[in-house]
Write a structure and sequence with these properties.
19 helices, DNAb Helicase, Chain A, Rossmann fold
């Protein structure tokens, strides 16, 4: 215990020579600030005087003021900070610390690395204090500890890269597409969607939204099962169903057995045989079902990171609105914003596809129209953070299209297909719709098999004619 106390009392990692090197380089050549500012924040400096000087240099650059020692001295004197930074003697010392400004970025990276180490120590100390005091339950303490470390890890992607470096990544990506001869996205099992939109892509946050009882959980389970049936590891978290219910639904889907027959005890011998075969197939799936009664976004992150080391390719969360708040004192829209941002960062960090289900508000149910992005609950943060947004549209009265015989465009006719999947947002691709069939007794969707006869002016049913042709 004495050794641990001695360790905690040690001087935190820092490098005053590197800090002086950064500031001296900027004073010698103010153009260095453009690169240094991408790497360092004022709080990364260990010495308070250096931190204050760097803030003033950033402010001078923002205000488009020229930067040199004399002007910096005058500014510090005017605002009363000259004595706080050690006076003109400290500035002279900084200026003499480096003979030239060529190594500014090198010094900046040293300062940043020391700052990260200090942040790790601070986060660990806070976690130790929380664990010793035990004011919260262990899960809350663990979630808070992980959140602190995750915030530090989020800085790793802030450095810029040159075009020549990025070209290598793009080249590898194109080579992979050419070698496979197909898209690189994870297939969903909906053939038309996979062909037109490429499937689900690694490192992306995908939102699947619909009104209650439309089938978003069924479609998510269907996609998860298809991915796991091809040998991919899948994680499925549900706050709405038990593990047995999820497994039963999937097995009935595989076996093409009416789930209601099991609930009512009307299972025929041939159904029983198909169910046995379906259970044998399901047992070989690489899928992890998580049905904890309560889970935070930090809890999801912890599991996804662990499984990512084992090859996890798809994680499903059913659904966003039921996830527990990390801080119950925060307003709902702020909490949703925190959750979607953390999920987005998690997808980028691990390279795992995150398929997150979301409830639509009542607006689409009232106007009977197709869902729109603004119908998402707390839509601002969800729409902003999502890479892809998918809507299931399956109204009870059927999908209505303009009647081609009505020149006033007031009458409508019922479409032959009962449901549609709308790709309302795709950050790196096209948007559009595909037609779906719904097999209620098996709780599954399928692409509208045969090309149906459609009205001559079918494209008028869409806000954007280009959408209809996708």
């Amino acid at each position: 215990m004495a050794a641990n106390s001695e360790l905690l009392d040690s001087v935190p990692p820092h490098n005053l020579q590197a800090e002086a090197g950064v500031l001296g380089s900027i004073l010698l050549d103010p153009r260095c600030l453009n690169e240094v500012s991408l790497i360092l924040r004022p709080e990364d400096f260990y010495a308070k005087a250096n931190r204050k000087i760097y803030r003033h240099l950033l402010a001078m650059d923002t205000e488009r003021q020229p930067i040199d020692v004399s002007l910096l001295l005058e500014r510090l004197h005017t605002v009363g900070d000259l004595e706080a930074v050690g006076g003109s003697a400290h500035l002279a010392e900084i200026l003499n610390a480096v003979p030239y400004a060529a190594n500014a970025v090198y010094y900046a990276k040293i300062v940043r690395d020391k700052a990260i180490l200090r942040a790790i120590i601070h986060a660990s100390t806070e976690s130790l204090r929380a664990a010793y005091e035990a004011l919260d339950d262990p899960q809350t303490v663990l979630d808070a500890a992980e959140q602190r470390l995750q915030a530090i890890g989020g800085r790793r992607d802030q450095e810029s890269r040159t075009a020549s470096e990025l070209v290598l990544e793009v080249s590898d990506h194109i080579d992979a597409v050419c070698e496979r001869g197909q898209h690189l996205g994870l297939p969903t099992g909906l053939t038309v969607f996979d062909e037109r939109f490429g499937g689900l892509f690694a490192g992306e946050l995908i939102i699947l939204a619909a009104r209650p009882s439309v089938g978003k959980s069924a479609l998510a389970a269907q996609i998860a099962d298809y991915a796991s049936s091809t040998g991919r590891l899948v994680y499925f978290f549900s706050l709405e169903m038990t593990g047995r219910e999820l497994a039963m639904r999937t097995i009935c889907n595989i076996a093409s057995v009416d789930g209601h027959a099991i609930r009512t005890g009307r299972i025929f011998p041939e159904d029983r045989q198909r169910l046995v075969e379906g259970m044998a197939q399901y047992a070989r799936r690489k899928i992890v079902l998580d049905v904890r009664a309560e889970l935070t976004v930090e809890g999801v992150g912890r599991t996804v990171r662990r499984l990512a080391n084992e090859g996890l390719e798809l994680a499903v969360v059913d659904y966003l609105g039921l996830m527990s708040a990390s801080d119950r004192s925060v307003r709902c829209y702020e909490q949703v914003g925190h959750q979607t941002r953390q999920l987005k960062l998690l997808a980028r960090e691990t390279g795992v596809r995150l398929l997150v289900l979301c409830q639509l508000n009542r607006a689409p149910a009232e106007d009977r129209g197709a869902p729109q992005l603004h119908h998402l609950r707390e839509s601002g943060s969800i729409e902003q953070d999502a890479d892809t947004v998918l809507f299931i549209h399956r109204p009870e009265e059927g999908i209505m299209l303009p009647d081609p015989t009505d020149k006033s465009h007031r009458r409508t006719i019922k479409a032959e297909w009962p449901a549609e999947l709308h790709v309302a947002k795709q950050r790196s691709g096209i948007t559009g719709r595909i037609r779906l069939d719904w097999e209620g007794k098996y709780t599954r969707f399928s692409c509208w098999g045969n090309e149906p006869t459609r009205p001559a002016n079918y494209e008028q049913a869409f806000d954007n004619p280009e959408e209809a042709r996708t």
